[in-house]
Amino acid sequence: MNSLYLNAANNQETQRPPIWLMRQAGRYMPEYRAIRSKHSFMSMIHNPTLAAEITLQPIQAFGMDAAILFSDILTTAEALGGHLEFHEGRGPLFKNPIRTAADLSQLNAQTGKKKLSYVYEAAALTKQKLTDFGVPLIGFCGAPFTIAAYLVEGQSSPDLKTLKKLMFTEPEVVHHLLDLITDITIDYANGQLAAGVDAFQIFDTWALHLSWDDFKTFSLPYIQKIIAGLKNPGAAPVTVFARGSSGLAPLLATSGANVLSLDWQSNLPEIKKAYPHLAVQGNLDPHILYGSKAMIEQKVGLLLAAMKPYKGFIFNLGHGIMPDMDPETIRFLVKLVQSHGA
Ligand code: CP3
């Protein structure tokens, strides 16, 4: 197997940095849109055969150094009892937002755990299909705080006002919700690892709204619990991603994760220097990919040069590929990074 990604995630020397890209399977690919035109997003992630096929699409087309399972972070929220729908152009929608202690009775972690086997089937099938390509498979979940944000707000929110009101009026309700999410997520992570995923990533997309102190109260302990709850510690490297992560990096470094995935505001070499025992992943601003080839070469060159002295670097974007991006740009980027040091 191509071990560049796993070696870098384990903070070992690699001949060149591995590259994979968040949202590498998705709407920017015509192959994805062809399947999507016939199925809803939810039915695609619930179908292991389709999920495996879509996971492989970017590997077949562009040859990234790792695959990420085609799924969504909101699978755990749905299994817990959230009535999840995706509406075109609006993103996720929960029809039964959880906003009071009484609402919590709609959620059940124990029955929820039994509803996620479709993801384990997708992971196992994908692993089988990936043997021909020889790249590792990354499984993932949402961090409890980010999942709580969707369950409480009911949709993507610019400021998490509803959740924050609840955090500062009835913190015990929020902690109860975070406990339920953490419980199902530990099972979920172990289920994916048992199905064969080679690495695991935790997405805390909405942590950027938290102060330092509140991240320590409402997010970090739950991420730590998930990582500490892995049955086979150290067997698969764990990455933690947070948007707006430059300020939170010192706290993320105490999460127990092996890899810090950082956005483009972070000074990646400085963070690597501060936490030499951890690997770092990131952190090209995805909008640069709208630029000319010369611009992309310049910006990618700067990042590669800045990270050259360090082991344990995984090339990625600071956030996901946008749906309107040109697949040829993605091909160019992958080749550019993979020719580095050759
Ligand atoms: O990265 C990958 O290629 C793997 C698959 C993946 C998806 N979502 C597929 C997806 C992963 C790792 C995610 C994670 C995810 N999902 C996050 C964390 C990462 C981040 O982006 O910050 C979040 C917050 C979600 C929740 C979610 N799912 C939203 C907000 C949306 C709508 C976004 C939009 O642009 O419409 C989704 C839908 C979604 N998840 C799509 C894909 C390919 C688009 C679905 C479609 O075809 O309509």
Describe this structure in words.
The chain is of the alpha/beta class. Helix content is 46%, strand content 12%. The chain contains 16 helices and nine strands. The protein has a seven-stranded parallel β-sheet with strand order 1-4-5-6-7-8-9. Strands 2-3 form a two-stranded antiparallel ribbon. The longest helix is centred in the middle third of the chain and has 25 residues. The structure holds coproporphyrinogen III (CP3). Coproporphyrinogen III binds next to strand 3.
What order do the strands of the largest sheet run in, or round the barrel if closed?
1-4-5-6-7-8-9
Sheet-strand content, in percent, reads 5-15%
**What is the number of helices?**
16
Helix proportion: 40-55%
In short:
The chain is of the alpha/beta class and 342 residues long. The protein is built from 16 helices and nine strands. Strand 7 (259-261), helix 14 and strand 8 (279-284) form a beta-alpha-beta unit.
